[in-house]
Amino acid sequence: MKTQKTILLVINPIAGGTDKKPIIDAFKKNVSQNNDESIVYETTGKNDKKAIQNLIAEKRPDRILISGGDGTIREVADAIKNESLKIGLLPSGSANGLATNFDIPDSLEQQLEIALGDHYIEMDLLEIDGYTCLHIADLGVNAQLIENYENSEIRGKLGYLIQAFPTLINNDFPFEVEIECNEETCTEEGVLVAIANANKFGTGAKINPTGKMNDGYFEVLVFKNFSIKGILETFYDDAHLDPDFVKVFKCKEVTIRSKKSIAFQIDGEFIGEKQLIKAKMTNSKLTIAIPKSFSAN
Ligand SMILES: Nc1ncnc2c1ncn2[C@@H]1O[C@H](COP(=O)(O)OP(=O)(O)OP(=O)(O)O)[C@@H](O)[C@H]1O
C-alpha cells in the first residue's frame, strides 16, 4: 500500500532565463521533509505533453507542482485534462499571468507552502480556437503590443511601456467587431476586445474586476476608447468600468468577427492576425492550490 505521497515537479529550464537549481533543490528538500517522494521532470520544448502523461501513468503522483511561465502551466493543463490532479504554482516565467491573478507571493518558500497546501480553487478552463486559455486572451492593441514586445530587445514592464507608444500611434485602431453571444449579435467598435476568465493581465492591471475564475462564465470586454491615458491605465492601474470606456458581456460561448485581420494573443502568447475567433467555456476544471488570502469573490 502507498503510504507516502508522490509530488511531481514539472519545471521549464529556460523559463524566465533564470537558473532553476535553487527551485529544484528547495522543492526536493521541502518534499523530503514531509517524508514524501519527489520526482522532477524538466521540459524539453518537444512532446512534453505526452512525456508528462506517461510519467503520470507510471508514477501516479498525488500532486503536480509547475515551475515556468503560463506556457508551461498550459502544457500541464492540457496533459491532465482527464485526471483530477491538484496542481501548485512556483512561477518562474518571464510572464506569470495566472500566478499574478492568484496573488502568489515572490518568495519561493511561501510559494512552496501554498503549492503544497490545502486551499484550492476549481478554476474554469476556456477553449479558444482549439487552444486552452487559462486567464485572458485579447484582440487588438494589447496583442499588437505583445507582438512588438516579442520582437524587441527590452524585457519587463519598461519594454511594454516603450512599445506602447509606437503601437498606439502606428496602427489603424479602433476596429469594428461583430460579437455573437447569449443568442444575440451586436456590432461594437473598440481598440481592445478581451476574452477574460481572470481579473488581471500579467502586468497586474485589473481589467475585469467583476470576473470570477470559478463561476462557469467568462467575460467579453470591449474597450472603446483610443486614449493613451486610458490604455496605459488599463495596463498599469485598475481600469474604470465606465460604460463609455468598456462594454461587458458575460457568457459561456462567443463568436467574434472582424472585417480586418487584428492581432490576437492568448495568455501573453501572440497567436496571429485574426478575423474570426470562437471561444467557449469547457467542462474541465483545473484544481490549483492558492493562497488562503485569495478570494474568488
Ligand atoms: N528545454 C526547453 N528548451 C527550449 N524551449 C523549451 C524548453 N522547455 C519548454 N520550452 C518552451 O518554453 C515555452 C513556454 O515558456 P513559458 O511560457 O513557460 O515561460 P516564459 O519564460 O514565460 O516564456 P516566454 O517568455 O516565451 O513567454 C514553450 O514554448 C515551450 O515549448
Automatic annotation (TrEMBL):
Magnesium as UniProt keyword: yes
DAGKc domain location: 2-132
Pfam families noted in UniProt: DAGK_cat, YegS_C
GO MF term list: ATP binding; kinase activity; metal ion binding
Gene Ontology BP term (one): phospholipid biosynthetic process
Keywords linked to the UniProt accession: ATP-binding, Kinase, Lipid biosynthesis, Lipid metabolism, Magnesium, Metal-binding, Nucleotide-binding, Phospholipid biosynthesis, Phospholipid metabolism, Transferase
PANTHER family: LIPID KINASE YEGS (PTHR12358:SF106), SPHINGOSINE KINASE (PTHR12358)
Protein's name according to its UniProt entry: YegS/Rv2252/BmrU family lipid kinase
Classification of source organism: Bacteria, Pseudomonadati, Bacteroidota, Flavobacteriia, Flavobacteriales
